[in-house]
# Entry
Amino acid sequence: MQERLSWAQAACARVMRPLVRLALGMGLKHPHLEGMLRDLLLEEATRLWQRQGVAAPNISQLAVTTGLNRKDVTARVRRPADPLPHTELSAAAKTFTRWLQLASEDPALAVLPVAANGHGLSFEDVAREASRGDVHHRAVLDELMRLGMCSRVDPGRVELTAEGFVPASDLQGTLAFLGDNLRDHASAAVSNALAEAPLLLERAVYAEGLSEADCDAVHQWMRHRWSGLHRDLVGQLSEAIARSGAQGERRLRIGVYVWHGDREPS
# Structure
């Protein structure tokens, strides 16, 4: 058992190292991280008991599972509010993805009239379809322009100017995507490690002894391949959502990453 705990601790340390780097780079200190870890321990312990059929685990059960004392558990029973937006719920992200798909099928659609005019597709049509009419298309357009995803060609038309929904000019949005993407990637790996369900696709290729130019070339090759795969995935998922009438209970996230840096010491 001690060896098993040591392995798990080492794996957690590897995963958490870049997150600690992010935390220090953003100014978070030990008390912030300790408080966050205590909250997460409590939330995940609650879910663990619930999966075992205990709808409302008591203070003692949570204390034993997490190693937190009863006083600390009692003080943390309320889930803290998450200040980051949920990226999968963003009308701007949905509209951008749908627009990008249409433009990949017909490059002429990279430029659209803002308002519907009865003469072909408009940004208003795309936004209404993607957000199911829940958000006014002008508000969606303002958000995409603020994020640098599109720009005005003239007062009545807008042009798609980004290849992916990466809101680099919006720190809150960037951190939200970082959190959601890494959470789901890690969730797939953890599910596989704990044998919680049939194995999920979670693969990577590693190489060393490369030059900076080699790494850059592979990076650009992967970007090119991802563009085509992204287009096909969006089409397949859009059809699946249409078949279910958006009433399905499952969610899915598919991603790809490239990282290169100096060799790690042996």
